[in-house]
Amino acid sequence: MSNAAVPEDARPAFLFERQECGTRAVSLDQTGGNLPGGAGSWKLVNEFPLGVQEVVPADIDPEPVLRGLRARGFFIWEADNIEPFGTSQ
Q1: For the whole model, what pTM was predicted?
Q2: Across the strands, what pairs with 16?
Q3: 88 in helix, strand or coil?
Q4: Residue 77 counted as domain residue
Q5: Mapping DSSP to helix (H, G, I), strand (E, B) and coil, where does residue 27 land?
Q6: The domain containing residue 35 runs over which residues?
Q7: From edge to edge, which strands make up the β-sheet containing 11-18?
Q8: Is residue 4 domain-resident?
Q9: Of 14, 58, 57, nearest to 39 (Cα)?
């Protein structure tokens, strides 16, 4: 990931998934070692810049992701239970 295109408030984040149950997670740990069940139960899908103005490469608003990262170091959601949405920005 090139730092030239990443806004100052963004940081590298990692999108993981558990295909067998449709669960996704975002972590700042590239190995996913801080996710419940450990790194072995999650598949790394994508690295992306995470920030208030950045688009998460999944159908979810970045605000709850950022709050979860601050509170627990990761954010997990059931991908099938999120309604797709857009933003006016």
Answers
A1: 0.75
A2: 25, 44
A3: coil
A4: yes
A5: strand
A6: 11-81
A7: 43-50, 11-18, 23-27, 74-78
A8: no
A9: 14
The gap between the terminal CA atoms of the chain, to the nearest Å, is: 23
Amino acid at 82: I
In a domain, 42, yes or no: yes
Q: What is the CATH number of the domain that holds 17?
A: 3.10.510
DSSP-assigned letter for residue 55: P
- Give, for all 89 residues of the chain, the pLDDT tens digit: 444 454 556 789 999 999 778 899 999 999 999 999 877 889 999 999 887 777 778 878 888 888 999 999 999 998 765 443 333 33
| φ, ψ (nearest 5 deg) of residue 38 | 85, 170
Looking at the chain, list the stretches that DSSP marks H as alpha helix, in order from N- to C-terminal side: 62-72
Q: Reduced to 3 states, what is the DSSP secondary structure of residue 81?
A: helix
Q: Where are the alpha helices (DSSP H) in 3-89?
A: 62-72
Q: How many domains does the chain have?
A: 1
Confirm if 6 and 49 have CB atoms less than 8 A apart: yes
| Residue 44 maps to a domain | yes
Write out the two tokens for 64: 């709850």
